[in-house]
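User: Fold both of these, please.

Assistant: Here is the first one.
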Amino acid sequence: MSSHIKISPSILSADFSKLGEEIISLDKAGADYIHVDVMDGHFVPNITIGPEIIKKLRPVTKKIFDVHLMIQPVDLYIKSFAEAGADIITFHPEATPNTLGTIELIKKYNKKVGISLKPDSEISLVENILDKVDLILVMSVEPGFAGQKFMPKVLPKLKKLKDIIDRRGLEIDLEIDGGIDFENCKAAIEAGANVLVSGSTIFKKNNGDLKKNIDLLKSS
C-alpha cells in the first residue's frame, strides 16, 4: 500500500444541495485534502464556486482546502480566496502576465503555492520556478468539466517533472487531476504523482461508499 499517497476529493462531483454535509463525510472517510475547482466561464468554459462559498464551508472541516483557480486574471482574486480559507492556491501560468508576481502574492497571504499545467502545457512554463512552489498539478483532462476521460498522454510529463524534482532535491507535491479511477491511478502513482484528485470515482463508485473508494485509490 502506498501510505504516502494523499487523496484530494473534488467537490465538483458532490451534491451541491448539501455541500457542507458532503465535506464532513469526506473528512470522516479519510480524505487528506478537499479539492475545490474554481472556474470563471472565461479561462475555462464553465462557472463553479467563488470565495463566499469557501468561506461558508471553511468551519465544517480542518482538512486542507486545495483550491484550483481556473480563472483569469488570477491576481485580482487571490486575496479573496486566501481570506476565505484556502490553504493551497493553485493557478495556471497562462492566467497571469507575471508568474513570479503571482507566486509572491500567494505567499504574502501565507498560503502554499501550486501551479497547474493543462494537458498540452509545456514543462518549460514551470521549470525555472520549481524551487518557489509547493505543488505542481498536472491536468489529465482539459480543465472545465467533471467526468471527463483520463488522458494517458500526460504520464510522460508527470514522470519528467518527478525526475527534475528529485534531481534538484526539492520537496514538492506532484498532483494529478482528471478522470482518475481505480485503474489508471496506479500508472499515475508510478509516474510520480503523490496527490490524486478524484471526483466521480469517489462520489459514485461502490454506491457512493466514500471511505471504500478513498482507500481503494490509496492502495492501488
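And the second sequence with its predicted structure:
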Amino acid sequence: TLMQRKNSPVNILSAGCSYGEEVYTFATACRAYGINARIKGVDISPLAIEVAKEGVYTLDALEEEYISVEDKYKQNYRAKVTSMFKAMFEKSPKNESRWEAKDGEFMNCSFEARNISDLGTTEEENSQDLILCRYVLYHIDNLQTLRQTINGFYTILKPGGLLSLNAQEYEKYEELL
C-alpha cells in the first residue's frame, strides 16, 4: 500500500494547513510508524505560514489533531504518537504552556504561502501520494475556483494517490469529484 513503501518517501501535501498543526501531527505519526514521509503545508496566509514554521503550539492544539485521528484508527495510536511527540517536541523555555519542535526533528516538513487554487503546475504533476484538505474547500464559494482547485489536486496526485477530504466537503462537492 501507499504507506508501506520502503525505498522512496511518501509525499504528503496539507492543503490549507493554517498554522501547521496537521503537518506536525502527520510527521510525528509517520515517524512513530516508521514511514519515510516528506510533508508540505500550503496556506494562502503568509502570517499563518510564519507561525507554522516556528512550530510552537499549546499542547491542546496538537492533541486536538491527535484526537481527531485517534477516533478512526487503532486504540494504541494515541499512546504511540504521544510518546513520539514527547521525543520531537519540548516545553518552550519562553512559555511553559507551549511546546516547540526540537531542532532538526522536522527536516522532512516544509511550508509555503500559496493559494491552493494555483496548485497543479507542470512541475508538480504526479508529485503527491496524499493530499490532506480538511475544512478548506467549503470556504470556496466560486464554482469555477472550486473546480480549478480540485483539478489541480488531481494533476499533482500520483497515479493511485489519495485525496483526503472531510465528510461534509465530500458530500457537498461529490459531483465535482
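The first strand starts at residue 10 and ends at 15.
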